[in-house]
Amino acid sequence: MPSLSIHRLLGLASMDRINALLAVDFPVQPSTCTDQFYLDSNYQIHQLHEASTILAKVVSIQAKLTSRMRCHDTLSSDNIALTIVQNLLTLYECVNNRRRKKENTLWEVLDDNPTHATVKLKTLMSKVSENSADFQGKLPHIQLRNFQTLGAGRWLDDEIINYFVEKWCSKSGTTIGFNTFFASKVLFQEDDCINPKFKVTVADEQTVGSWYRSAAKGVLNWDSVFIPVNENKTHWYSARIDFHLRRIDIYDSLKERYTVNQRKPMLLRRNAPLMMMLMWLTEVLGRIRGEDIDLSRSSDCDWVYDPHFKVSFQPNSCDCGVHLLWHLRHVLEYRQITLDHGVGEGELGHLAFTRNMVGKRLRLAREMLDDIGLGIV
């Protein structure tokens, strides 16, 4: 950031002033779908990310400085030091805001231009394969073959789903994300996740407790759970239990399943048996939370059940996994899946569902590479 200097940090600077200085080094680019826009955007995002990593240390510096200052008489230099630290904290916030804005603009442009996004994704996948030694072993449980399922037209595998569910839910602090194998071991009769169980035992409840203890690590104040379902290794969908909103929803991006089942009575709908298992799971998790939930009682009748919640539909047979991850993004951001109602599509921006989700695939691949510091563009 050439426009910034120690001299500029000596006086207390407003956020507007710091943003103006950042605009000199990281100017707004015309949002055109060109190779130059893509390269420039990625370069600036990378630079801002590096600056953010360095500035993040200021948070601990401020805490230490404040603590030490209590141990001695006030010095004339104290105010200067505090001013610089405060300016650095403001700079840290401004850098993060500008990075997010540039990222969001880039992803919106790629969402609007799927052909261009496909070319970029194929190029990225090719470069990672050529430099496989730099990738292998850097992410837990992720091999190159797993990463490659993010490629255009590929079906996402379990490890990719698990990676993002664990990462995003852990960061959220409010949502427990179960492993993709949870549903097959707890909710369904067989590993293919086709036929839900119709009876449960004490052992089943103990199994839930074991899975919960593993999934809830680091998620201290949770009030919802997200459950990915791998149906016969050919289709992804998910379920969510929200203790705050008191509702249970099943999200499936296959349009035919939604339209056919909406016309049926509730108990005859395809996902009705699974909903019964989710109601049981809600009661079990409620006990873990210290809540007495009995969904057979009239006192708990304010819970809402939607076995076929309306979502954006996939136009192909391969994007179900990407839709599932975007369902989770919406749940964490908006607490519910949002299409174009309630929040304008323009406001959804980079989180909006698109008919062709290749831009989302590129975004997910880029996020994984950023997580290991592999700056391949």
From TrEMBL:
Stretches assigned to the Ubiquitin-like protease family profile domain = 140-331
Q: Cite the entry's keywords alphabetically.
A: Hydrolase, Protease
Pfam family of this protein, just one?
A: Peptidase_C48
Could you identify this protein by its name? Ubiquitin-like protease family profile domain-containing protein
- Return the similarity comment: Belongs to the peptidase C48 family.
Q: Name one GO biological process term.
A: proteolysis
For this protein, the record's SUPFAM superfamilies field holds: Cysteine proteinases
Looking at the record's lineage, which domain of life comes first? Answer: Eukaryota
Q: Which GO terms describe its molecular function?
A: cysteine-type peptidase activity; ubiquitin-like protein peptidase activity
